[in-house]
Amino acid sequence: RNSIVLSAMNKEISELFNKLPLYQFFAAFSQLISRICHAHPDVLKNLIDILSRLVVEYPQQALWLSIVVSKSTYSIRSSRCQEMFNIAINKDSSLQVLLAHMTHLVDRLLEICNKPVENHQTVLTVSGNFKSLSKMFSNPSFSQILVPLKSMLNVTLPLKDQNHINHNPFPNKYVCITGFEDEVEVLSSLQKPKKITIQGSDGLKYTMMCKPKDDLRRDSRLMDFNDIVNKFLRRSEEARKRWLCIRTYAVVPLNEECGLLEWVPNTSSLRYIILKLYKEKGQGIPVKQLRTLMAKKEQSEQEKLSIFLKLLPQNPAVFYEWFLRTFPNPMLWYSARITYARTLAVMSMVGYILGLGDRHGENILFDSKNGDTVHVDFNCLFNKGETFEWPEKVPFRLTHNLVDALGPTGVEGVYRAACECTMKVLRDQREPLMCILKPFIHDPLVEWSRGKHRVHNTDSGEINNEKALTHVSDIDLRLQGVLKLFNKKSRGLPLSVEGYVDHLIQEAQSPYSLSQMYIGWAPYM
Q: Are 514 and 308 in contact (CB under 8 A)?
């Protein structure tokens, strides 16, 4: 019976593919390619046909999104992707050269990602350290390759009253890579990511980060999720009139351990802003002194709370001053603070639903042009923070500096209204949002495949991962309004949107919960 239903659905999809505009399928490209090892032969044939047609129709965008699958450590996944490329090349022979040049470029970018550097090195050069990359774009026969920016890779869907047939899903002018700036900056963080500057065909320069030793498929899927959330927020009248949105940027995985990240300009981290203000005012506690004052892991919960309450008065709320200094015009200041409150609220709710942790002061940025809250580094998803040596106890970051910068009403007013509006939209759109996350079940992260949780179908090569199933199920429950107590299986009945948001805000501000956090997370800041 299941086989009959599946065959009927497959036939229906095939018919729809020939009727609907291709860009509608391209909007789900990541979800489609995650099933490239589907067990049913007819479904697989149909799937590869759809994917190959999309590669022919939108080669620049499709190759950037599929190159990571071609470099998969699962041989069946990479061979299926190559099969898809071959079918596309049979339909359009010019793709063979583009694919070869794109693969060559990606290999050189991976070389930059994985280039070992000494601790004292802060700068590399393309001409000195990556000569093959500099030669590549001096060759006039080298293909034009799209700059992998968010605005270039994202499908723009037509409005209701627009003509769907002649719609251009990529209305922005194509900007191709013409070369690279010679200087490659080595960033100081542990994995030594490199900051590169791409020269665009429009005469502008585009900064990207080559990040090694991190599975950016997770970040890429989260950006897909955030893009869909933004679309639903724009559809909601209440969210639209509040201009609720998430600030997104391009994440392009190059393989399962490296990738490119679009650089977010005009931003400063929360930690940098606060420490700079403390230094000017002669306030705050020096790092060396903090280490002597910090609670020990073996101390009781009450002792940790007592230490935390002593630290707070020595680290007063100063973040509000950044808004006064950055936006001296009263109208700009008011607009920036409203924008800050709303973007903080949206990512508080979305981050909680996704189990986003590790929100220390370096992973939350603020835009000096408009006050936007920008979250970076999504390495700690799916409640991974609860498994740390010092387990994370708060649903999102809402420390006293962030609350104080919201103004006299604090979490009441703008912030709470934006939280409730966002949570309502997320709940109303639960099913389509879950579709974005389900590819994790079939294309699990590298770290999940190293444990005992992987189930591998040796006949088809498709993977079903128990850990991924659990995480996706937990997100589904949170979207239904079901609370899960920390590290406990017991669950209650679904709460109302208002009740759910109120509980989360209280939990995020709780001195008890904050006092149990690791000192490096800076709960006192």
A: yes
Q: What is the mean pLDDT of residues 45-53?
A: 92
- Confidence band, pLDDT 50/70/90 cuts, at residue 463: low
Question: Rounded to whole angstroms, what are the CA distances from 298 to 147, 186, 303, 510, 514?
Answer: 51, 38, 10, 21, 16
Question: In b/e form, how buried is each residue of 386-402, taking b as 16+ CB within 10 angstroms?
Answer: eeeeeebbbbbbbbbbb
User: Which stretches of 279-423 are assigned E, i.e. beta strand?
Assistant: 364-367, 373-375
CA end-to-end span of the chain: 59
What pLDDT was estimated at residue 501?
94
Three-class secondary structure of residue 173 per DSSP: coil
User: In the predicted model, is pLDDT for residue 432 greater than 60?
Assistant: yes
User: 447 pLDDT exceeds 60?
Assistant: no
Which residue type occupies 280? E
Q: pTM of the entire structure?
A: 0.87
What pLDDT score does 344 carry?
Answer: 96
Closest CA to 339 of 354, 352, 325, 323: 323
Residue 458 is predicted with a pLDDT of: 44
CA-based angle 215:221:225, to the nearest 5? 150
- Paired with 269 in beta bridges are 365
Predicted confidence (pLDDT) at residue 434 exceeds the cutoff of 60: yes
pLDDT of residue 215: 83
Q: Which residues contact 325 (CB under 8 A, 6 or more apart)?
A: none
**3-class secondary-structure state, position 161:** coil
**AA identity, residue 327:** F
Decide if 209 contacts 193 (C-beta within 8 A): yes
- What residues have CB less than 8 Å from 447, skipping those under 6 apart? 215
CB-side exposure of 395: number of CA atoms within 13 Å? 24
And the tokens for 34?
């995650």
Query: DSSP class of residue 180?
Result: E
d(CA 162, CA 169): 12
Q: Is the pLDDT of residue 1 over 80?
A: no
> SS3 for 10?
helix
Amino acid at 25: F
Angle 75-91/59-70 helices, nearest 10 degrees? 150
Reference 50, options 70, 29, 71; nearest CA is: 29
pLDDT computed for residue 161 by the predictor: 66
CA 180 to CA 503: how far, in whole Å? Answer: 49
For the record, the structure tokens of 481 come out as: 């309004």
CB-neighbour burial class of residue 24 (10 A; exposed 0-12, middle 13-18, buried 19+): middle
pLDDT in tens, 217-274: 888 888 888 988 999 999 999 999 999 999 999 999 998 889 999 998 899 999 999 9
DSSP class of 524: T
Whether residue 157 contacts residue 23, with contact meaning beta carbons closer than 8 Å, is answered with yes
Average pLDDT, stretch 280-299? 78
Please give the radius of gyration of the chain, using alpha carbons only, rounded to the nearest integer. Answer: 24
Write out the H or E segment, with its range, that includes residue 424: helix 414-428
